[in-house]
Structure formats: C-alpha cells, structure tokens
C-alpha cells in the first residue's frame, strides 16, 4: 500500500506516540515481552491505523496481541490525549505481527546450512 506524504507523516507521529505510551507502562501491556512498533500504515482518510509490532520472545506473541486487543480502547484513549489537539479524528487501531526479522533469521539459517562445493578452476577461467 503506497501512502502519500500526509499519511506517512501522520503514521510516523502515531508510531512515535504509541512507542512512548508503551514504553511508559511496558508490563501493563506486554508482561515480560520486548515489543517494538516497527511501522504504522494509515488509511487515506486517516481514520484507521495498522500498527505493526515485533515481539520478543516469539513464543509470547499470541499473548501480547490478545492483551493489546483487550486494551485497545485504553491505548486509543492515551493516544487521543497526546494527539487530540492536532487531529480531527483519533484513528481506530489494528495490531499486526511484523515477522520480518524472524523470516530474515530463517533465511540466514537456510543459507548457512547450504553445502555449496567450491567452483572448479576450469569453469572460472572460461
């Protein structure tokens, strides 16, 4: 999904504010997990935000997202307190797991596990 400049700027602000909200009361939202807000995508009307989160350890991902969805209205209220004077509508929030890091790690493991024989010298000369 491509975003215009306004959506991108607004998404970056939401990302910054949510990071600060989560950082202030980490255990309340995530327990003992480490969570990073990796990206925010905004709808064209700025009324809906897709928030992508990276969770460590990976085993706790399901619990973290269950807890976040339970506290979504509370999070939205805190966000509204921060940006309410700057915007008309506080966006609806949807949380998604960003598994880019896990996929990259799996790819590294696969590549490291490959048994690639060295090239023959005659092939290199040609």
Automatic annotation (TrEMBL):
Assigned keywords, A-Z: Cytoplasm, Ribosome biogenesis
Metal-binding keyword on record: no
InterPro entries for the chain: KH_dom-like_a/b (IPR015946), RbfA (IPR000238), RbfA_dom_sf (IPR023799)
Gene3D superfamilies reported for this sequence: 3.30.300.20
SUPFAM superfamilies: Ribosome-binding factor A, RbfA
Superkingdom, taxonomy of origin: Bacteria
Main location: cytoplasm
Location in the cell: Cytoplasm
UniProt keyword annotation of Cytoplasm present: yes
Record-annotated membrane-spanning stretches: none
Pfam families (UniProt xref): RBFA (PF02033)
Self-association and partners: Monomer. Binds 30S ribosomal subunits, but not 50S ribosomal subunits or 70S ribosomes.
Functional description taken from the UniProt entry: One of several proteins that assist in the late maturation steps of the functional core of the 30S ribosomal subunit. Associates with free 30S ribosomal subunits (but not with 30S subunits that are part of 70S ribosomes or polysomes). Required for efficient processing of 16S rRNA. May interact with the 5'-terminal helix region of 16S rRNA.
Family the entry assigns: Belongs to the RbfA family.
The protein's name: Ribosome-binding factor A
Annotated source species: Marinoscillum luteum
